[in-house]
Amino acid sequence: MINDFSKFYTFMEIVKERSFSKASRALGISQPAVTLQMKKLEEMLQTTLIMRKKNGIVLTHEGEKFYKLCTQFESAMFRFKDELARIKTDKVPLVIATTQLIAEAVISILLDKISQSVGSELDIRIKEQNELINYLKDRRSDIAIILEQSLDSSLLVKKLFDYELILVSNKKIAESVKPEELVKFKFIKDRTRTYLDDILHKHGVDAHALDVAYSLDGSIMVCRALASNHADTYVAFLPRFLIENELKNGRLFEINISKFKLTRSVYAAALKENEEALHKFLKIKTSFNF
Hints:
Blueprint: H1 6-17, H2 20-27, H3 31-45, E1 50-53, E2 56-59, H4 61-88, E3 94-98, H5 100-105, H6 111-118, E4 122-126, H7 132-137, E5 143-146, E6 155-169, E7 176-177, E8 186-190, H8 195-202, E9 211-216, H9 219-228, E10 234-239, H10 244-248, E11 253-257, E12 262-271, H11 275-281
Parallel strand pairs: 3-4, 3-5, 7-11, 8-9, 8-10
Antiparallel strand pairs: 1-2, 5-12, 6-10, 6-11, 6-12
Helix pairs in contact: 1-2, 1-3, 2-3
Organism: Campylobacter massiliensis
Pfam families: HTH_1, LysR_substrate
Keywords: DNA-binding, Transcription, Transcription regulation
């Protein structure tokens, strides 16, 4: 009978780090202790889970199946802890999961309005875009604010607001350009916005032909890099709502692209059982005036 779940977490950390030594550092225990835990786990399950290789580790077929079970177990434990916390307190916070961009640039300035609308305290959790739906379906959040439409039939998904993605520079260079002139600029690129390549292609611009000085993860990092580095003239595509202040105070400069306008949508999603919470949350839609 399994009564020591620490071995599960050790196994998951090894898989995550792809290394016994890195897992030992992450867990704060010695490498021999990690090896011993894995040995006992494999003896208990009577199978081999991991094969050591020169360049890391490889999961066996049984290891792949066991890792999937472990991730399900981890999700269940998170749900258990959340529900336990709710039992302990009379005030049950509404858990909202979203990306760092939306949390910092949007949710943070509307906390009071959201709290008043839903009638509870808030617990804001930052996740990667590709984690949000599973996080919601695992019931680890009540509402997820997502940057892409979801067609999952188990969810209620409502548009929250539209926003414009614009081209800006760190130095004043031109008020407007043609799409084909984009190849003249040095870009700071947000590598998470992969859809931009297709949109540029539709306007006759080969994204691979652009001069990319830096590739970064996320609009917030791109915004900070663009506003802080002046050794050269750089441009970037950024959400207008993120850079309103920078445009007003002259730290960044908008460049209009002729016959080119890029609008994206942000959605609020919830499980059908949380329809009431989603309905209350959507009452503040007019506050998202981007």
